[in-house]
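Running this now, will post back.
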Amino acid sequence: MAGSIEGASRRGLAALALAMTAAPTLAAASGKCARAPDEAADTAAILKVIADMQAAWNRGDFAGYMAGFLNPGVVFVSKGRFQNGWQGTLDHYVRDYGASADTRGEVRFYDIKVEILGPDAAQLISRYELNRPRQAQRGINTRLMRKVDGRWVIALNHVSAEEAPSPT
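Update: finished.
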């Protein structure tokens, strides 16, 4: 038994050493030094997804807004809780925001920063504000974008809302 663990350990260390040797080359090929030719196109496609989502929300089209998320597998975290997947998130929006334009408000995403992590992965961090007569919101979205079937979607969305100022 010890021989097999020791052999596996040696193979694991050899693989790690190989990966560490290759890491600088891979980083140069995909990192800040050498940009992939389609990085600008991917960034533009991601920004379009976010702009389309913003427009859909502002016209009351929650299904259109949700088209920007991985369906059904999105992980959505807000207010310290996980939403119940894609359908649960849509149901939450319709139930809690969909009664009228006043309850829905108007959303705006800004200060958007996109970092392409690989050919099918990107990180997006942005600020948002939801302007509405009652309980306006603002905060930060952190999103893991994935390219699925040639289309960028949000696979993980984490919302950190700012605390509303005290009414005093």
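The longest strand covers residues 106-118. More later if anyone needs it.
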